[in-house]
Recover the amino acids of this structure.
């Protein structure tokens, strides 16, 4: 019983990061750039209501891309079960997250040791990882 609950908690934390980037105590103005994506949730019911999709998934493939020296992980996941929205078992969804495994470059452009970046200390989905996630489309509100 403990193990599934642990996965649920971890999945919810990942979902909150996917939905909002980070939590904020105060609302922000609509035109305030990236911070306008910030939203915090007090209950799972609030998170579930706001989510456009709630699905149980398995990550099939991943690639890390760099943008302005920040790694982003693009995962292709298979739907195992849909709890909100019309997805069927086997459907695929593409998810982008800040962070992941990458090879940084020094000032001369020489490759350094491979490293992993976690956004707010939270790791990205893992290949063959099994999660329940709460999603909204990028830029959607």
């Amino acid at each position: 019983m403990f193990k599934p609950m642990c996965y649920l908690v971890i999945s919810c934390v990942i979902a909150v990061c996917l939905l909002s980037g980070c939590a904020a105590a105060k609302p922000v103005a609509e035109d305030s750039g990236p911070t306008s994506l910030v939203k915090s949730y007090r209950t799972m019911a609030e998170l579930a209501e706001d989510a456009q999709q709630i699905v149980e998934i398995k990550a099939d493939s991943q690639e890390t891309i760099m943008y302005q020296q920040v790694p982003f992980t693009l995962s292709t996941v298979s739907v195992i079960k849909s709890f909100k929205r019309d997805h069927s078992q086997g459907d695929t969804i593409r998810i982008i997250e800040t962070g992941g495994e990458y090879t940084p470059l020094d000032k001369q452009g020489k490759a350094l040791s491979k490293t992993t970046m976690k956004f707010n200390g939270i790791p990205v989905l893992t290949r063959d990882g099994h999660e329940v996630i709460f999603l909204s489309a990028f830029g959607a509100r």
In short: The first helix runs from residue 2 to 20. The longest strand covers residues 53-67. The beta strands are 53-67, 70-84, 92-102, 115-118, 130-135. The helical segments are 2-20, 44-50.
